[in-house]
Amino acid sequence: MKEIMKTAVVGIGSRGSSLIPDAILPAGEEFGVEIAAVLDAYRDRTKLGADIVEERTGKRPKEAASYEEILNDPDIDAVIITAAWEPHIDLAVKAMKAGKYVAFEVGGAYSVEDCWRLVHTFEETGVPCMLLENCCYDRRELMTLRMVREGLFGEIVHAGGGYCHDLREEIAFGRENRHYRLRNYMNRNCENYPTHELGPIAKVFDINNGNRMMTLTSTASSAKGLHDYVLRKKGTDDPLADVDFLQGDVVTTVIKCAKGQTITLTLDTTLPRTYSRGFTVRGTRGAYFGETDSVFLDGTHNAFEFKGKALWGNAAEYEEAYQHPLWKEYDPRGGHGGIDFLVICAFFEALTAGTRPPIDVYDAAAWMSITALSEISIAQGGAPVEIPDFTRGKWYMRGDIDGSLRFNLDRADVFEGFYQKK
Amino acid sequence: MKEIMKTAVVGIGSRGSSLIPDAILPAGEEFGVEIAAVLDAYRDRTKLGADIVEERTGKRPKEAASYEEILNDPDIDAVIITAAWEPHIDLAVKAMKAGKYVAFEVGGAYSVEDCWRLVHTFEETGVPCMLLENCCYDRRELMTLRMVREGLFGEIVHAGGGYCHDLREEIAFGRENRHYRLRNYMNRNCENYPTHELGPIAKVFDINNGNRMMTLTSTASSAKGLHDYVLRKKGTDDPLADVDFLQGDVVTTVIKCAKGQTITLTLDTTLPRTYSRGFTVRGTRGAYFGETDSVFLDGTHNAFEFKGKALWGNAAEYEEAYQHPLWKEYDPRGGHGGIDFLVICAFFEALTAGTRPPIDVYDAAAWMSITALSEISIAQGGAPVEIPDFTRGKWYMRGDIDGSLRFNLDRADVFEGFYQKK
């Protein structure tokens, strides 16, 4: 094995240019991975990426002229894709075919067929591919997962979450920065960003590892927020003033799992509010409520507590006893409170150990498919839509699937057996 | 008109026996209404009802032997129904046919046909009928309604709410008190209690008065909470230990309105948690979030506030400026923080003025139908189900419908025009 592994970073927009210094370089120091090449569809951004790396490391990476140049470079071991949503799967598939470990940023799928391509390409090539779902690594999500695994919440029957983030400014005026969200909000009406909340829930529910998602229904409100925002900010002369945005302001998706659990997802990005992912997990003996950052344990807390106010924020009291080992072992740094660092660490760990990553093509396909499926359900007036079983039956045959389908975020040497099922 | 109006109270279980002293007698003093008769299916409860009234007023009401005795009594002007869920509509229909003003407690409908019977009977008899949805009168619901009417939230596009109330003890062991919930949880799987949250939302959305609900989808989680609770509390010898409860622990219902708004309802009564109705209203320029009792106004509050914690509980700051006139004018007393008193006042106001009540048969039919419709949607795997237009087109013809279909909770003489639409 090589002493130092080499990765390329593809897509140097606002995400790539912050992920490099905040997560990829620090995690690379931890695991011995260098950024050897950068690439963007715009030359100015390719140069920007190289500048950022050089400034931090003193070593200038190659400014690649094309994706093929990266894939054909035998020195490059891996590719990290931080481009716009649309090309994610194409780029990941090409990387697997070229034998490069690949990780790609979050976003929903544009068609179910693309999700199948991810799966088929992995199965044909055997090259690992990871979805960089950073929210799986957040403090509360991991603490909740630990509490669930330790049985504090009893049997889990329901979970909810949302991507609740006022993005009106970025969507409407990010165009000045060549942002890709605007074209999506003009042309699609769907749960366009499901994985931040669904990823952590799927791990709690053992999706693809003893459980699976069966069907969903999706319903969109009318689209009023962006239009009102554009008119107030720029007036009727703005090019967007007459645009008929298709993306509903609030999209509610309800998923039913094979083992009877339900999952509710909310997309909520074009109305005024504070940020929340509302990550909530409900069991027969306890719960975590993200909206109020509170833990409720049957027999410990009082159900008659008015509006639960006395419990708001009490999750912090559980950190000492139940914080996830990853948050104790590592020193999360950088973007988004450290979760970017942790998710890149997970990818580099798999890359350097030659193992499969903890969020693999089956996870990516199942989670990302929600976008394409919700679009169909909304167009059909909320009709239930089948969620494909991308494992084709292997989800209940643990022995047949590589152990990495369980949530082995923890380093096996340190925390072996931590996630063994009861 | 009579100096003193006379009402009967039918159903003296835990609800009736608390509503009499907490709300019916105090509101009766306000409006000049006496309790002249009481009735329950159990004789001991009929006597209890008479005892309660006599103790408070010194005057013993008639202990009726049958509902017919009440309906045939020409001295009785009105009937208040606080019985088990199942007979509500039958009793209300009979009262209208007998020419008695009637009000009945909340609960869902068992069939859509029953909802039509309410509407047809009202249209044939002209006798007013009110649903006693006390939550329409709660502080935050009314404050939010006022803020919406005054335009603070912009155009409203989405709302949500739930009946989130740990009822495991009452459901499983209320049988010792002849409670009706157990048989419902054993035999039905539906959004069995929608009106506490839907009522206030329907008033915000002008349902039946410029808008209507078109379709819903409903999805239930598995039913695990009650079984686990029974086993832990009573062990395997309890008669309920082997019961296969049909009612899912969490039921998520999504409603689409004619004007494009969406409404999400959550039934959540058999898992551990604190009480919440989660009443939430979202507009293009502001929002109220019940879960954290917070107001967000575009341009005033910071969308980047982490998890919105700085805003938790800030709704109290808006009370002085935006509290509803009813909460300033009246002195709400008694059960459920005063809302029982206010809803009975609304009924007595209509009764004594000879007008239609603010929550009428069209409201009752539309709101209660959600239960029967959700049962069908769940049974069909979440398929969208049509919500009937119980007004048959009159919902967009304000002039054709009695003005009381608007939310005239306020006393017209004091607050005339308060709810005029902008």
Indicate the overall shape of chain A: globular
Determine the most extensive contact between two protein chains: A-B, 62 and 62 residues
Structural class of chain A: alpha/beta
Total helices of chain A: the number is: 15
Describe this entry's structure for a reader.
Two copies of one chain form a homodimer. With 422 residues, chain A is an alpha/beta fold. The first copy, chain A, has two domains: 5-135, NAD(P)-binding Rossmann-like Domain (Rossmann fold, 3-Layer(aba) Sandwich); 137-324 and 360-398, Dihydrodipicolinate Reductase, domain 2. In chain A, 36% of the residues lie in helices and 17% in strands. Chain A contains 15 helices and 14 strands. Chain A has helices at 14-31, 43-57, 67-71, 88-97, 112-125, 139-149, 168-173, 181-187, 195-204, 225-234, 319-322, 325-329, 339-353, 361-379, 412-415; strands spanning 5-10, 33-39, 62-63, 78-81, 101-104, 129-131, 156-164, 213-220, 250-257, 262-268, 280-283, 286-289, 294-297, 385-386. An eight-stranded mixed β-sheet of chain A has the order 13-12-11-7-10-9-8-14. A six-stranded parallel β-sheet of chain A has the order 3-2-1-4-5-6, sandwiched between helices. In chain A, helix 2 links the parallel strand 2 and strand 3 (62-63). In chain A, helix 4 packs parallel to helix 5. The longest helix of chain A has 19 residues, at 361-379. Chain A is globular. The two termini of chain A are 36 Å apart. Chains A and B meet through strand 8, helix 10, strand 9, strand 10 and strand 12 of A and strand 8, helix 10, strand 9, strand 10 and strand 12 of B.
